[in-house]
Amino acid sequence: MFSETFLRMIYLGCFLFLCGLTHAIPSYPIWWSLAVGHQYSSLGSQPILCGSIPGLVPKQLRFCRNYVEIMPSVAEGVKIGIQECQHQFRGRRWNCTTINDKAIFGPVLDKATRESAFVHAIASAGVAFAVTRSCAEGSATICGCDTRHKGPPGEGWKWGGCSEDVEFGSMVSREFADARENRPDARSAMNRHNNEAGRTSLNDNMFLKCKCHGLSGSCEVKTCWWSQPDFRVIGDYMKDKYDSASEMVVEKHKESRGWVETLRSKYNFFKPPTERDLVYYESSPNFCEPNPETGSFGTRDRTCNLTSHGIDGCDLLCCGRGHNTQAEKRKEKCHCIFHWCCYVSCQECVRVYDVHTCK
After folding, report:
1. pTM of this prediction?
2. Between 44 and 184, whose confidence is greater?
3. Strands (E), 156-283
4. Listing from the earlier edge strand, what are the strands of the sheet with 246-255?
5. How many Å apart are CA 131 and CA 172, to the nearest integer?
6. SS3 of 16, please?
7. CATH value of 304-359 in 3.40.50.970, 3.30.2460.20, 3.90.650.10, 3.40.50.620
8. Are 34 and 104 spatial neighbours (Cβ–Cβ below 8 Å)?
9. Does residue 70 contact residue 296 with C-beta atoms inside 8 Å?
10. Closest Cα to residue 91, out of 318, 358, 285, 311?
11. Where in the chain is the domain with CATH 3.30.2460.20?
12. Average of pLDDT values for 301-318?
């Protein structure tokens, strides 16, 4: 028989091992860091680099090695998602700041907040968008144009060009981004939902793009194809979803595989969220002051808009601390003249602007 001390050591070892597993699977995808690194640039010629991408679960690692030629597009997708996040939140207290670390957003995404919901959605949409665009441009050999969704042509136009296969791009995003969200807890359920909401936004915003043909641009015949919109359209769309995100509560259910956490609407008098809506279940910090625990950088020294009454205005962005004003000189082109034919000449002027920053 084993001694009591030996059994205690085994129990302690198992406990520490399980704690290590919990720590090893954070609530945000560490693999997003490939968007701000350089390791993905040569993935096509060096598959071994798949193993160097941080935070990949086994399913993602297999996907990377099997479809290595589209991994640069996956990285590009996360990159444009992050850039769009920074554009959409440029005038808010939290402005989607990234840091030089594997956890590129820091602890701010540890909580199941609106911000986490938006970042997951826009990153998943970015992956689907970039892969879809890459396929249409012929950059990858395993995919191409969408030949399934054409339907009858309209009057004065016919199908042509290369319809973008958003279903393939969404499939790649789903298989890769959702691979780590298979745990029976509330955060995985939230991440899966928001990932899918981001991908659905692409389908909802596809449009018919046409090109005219004929003498002197007479547009006697048009060829048309399905196209994704500019990603800014997706960003604007998802920002609206962020503003109207649904707050949820966590419920636990006993199933054959054990306890499973699900989400339901916190307020019954509101319409329940659809697959297109963002969901969250934890409140956001106010982001006014620096806080390493929450990942807040605070708003000190942030530029604010003195005339705005919105969140980018000095009153709200500076959290009531007031602001500083400093004159700033900027060189600009001025007194421009068009010369026939055909160029424009300009002078260079120095103008002084007041720049307002939070105290």
Report:
1. 0.84
2. 184
3. 157-159, 207-213, 221-227, 246-255, 258-265, 279-280
4. 258-265, 246-255, 279-280
5. 8
6. helix
7. 3.30.2460.20
8. no
9. no
10. 311
11. 304-359
12. 94
